[in-house]
Design a protein that fits this description.
Alpha/beta hydrolase, 5 helices, two-stranded antiparallel sheet, alpha/beta, single chain, PLipase/COase/thioEstase, about 25% strand
Length: about 200
């Protein structure tokens, strides 16, 4: 998969895995990592699905309707790639923070809710996951930061609540941050930095 890897100087050894939104790419999303923590390693991955010229991580049948078979296939493919990249670039998979926006958050959810999920941390910005996964395995060690919009024109409040419920039903440790729309706001950055500092200091 096309990607960018940047070695950080965080002595603790955390790594952001950046997952962009629809229509963006692995370069566009790089400033987001700097906004949260400039010391982390960064692995930024390009979505390999092209929807009318817009890059995504999985196909959809129409707005808000996912191609479930493709989602699971692409999620497995992405998970395998990240694990292989951790070996290639020698970063600790236990200290990976999945950092996704919109479509990037949605493919991250697919990986996080798998039986073989190796990740402990995720920052999901403007997520939506209109599915009910069969796997109900509890993940009490999973820490998830969710940034959601109260007036998001793409993700309704019910859709946001569904994402919260998916993780809380699996006993994950969920922190919520609310903004206005389908965006990364100043409040998102402030709340996200606080969440990251707590992770780094524990």
């Amino acid at each position: 998969m096309k990607h960018i890897y940047q070695k950080g100087f965080d002595q603790v050894g955390f790594t952001f895995v950046l997952l962009h939104g629809t229509g963006s790419n692995e370069v566009d999303i790089l400033p987001l990592a700097d906004s949260f923590d400039q010391t982390f390693n960064v692995l930024s991955i390009r979505g390999n699905v092209n929807e009318n010229g817009a890059l995504r991580y999985f196909r959809r049948l129409k707005e808000g309707v996912y191609d479930e078979d493709d989602l699971h296939l692409r999620g497995e493919e992405l998970l395998t790639f990240i694990i292989e990249a951790s070996q290639t670039y020698a970063f600790d998979i236990d200290k990976v923070v999945l950092l996704g926006f919109s479509n990037g958050s949605n493919i991250a959810i697919n990986m996080l809710l798998r039986d073989d999920n190796p990740f402990k941390y995720a920052m999901l910005l403007a997520p939506m996951y209109p599915l009910e996964p069969e796997n109900l395995k509890e993940q009490p060690m999973l820490k998830v930061f969710l940034s959601m919009g109260k007036h998001d024109p793409i993700v309704s409040l019910d859709d946001s609540k569904h994402v919260i419920d998916l993780f809380e039903a699996r006993k994950a440790q969920v922190v919520q941050s609310w903004t206005n729309s389908h965006e990364v706001s100043a409040q998102t950055i402030i709340d996200g930095r606080k969440w990251l500092n707590e992770i780094k200091n524990n």
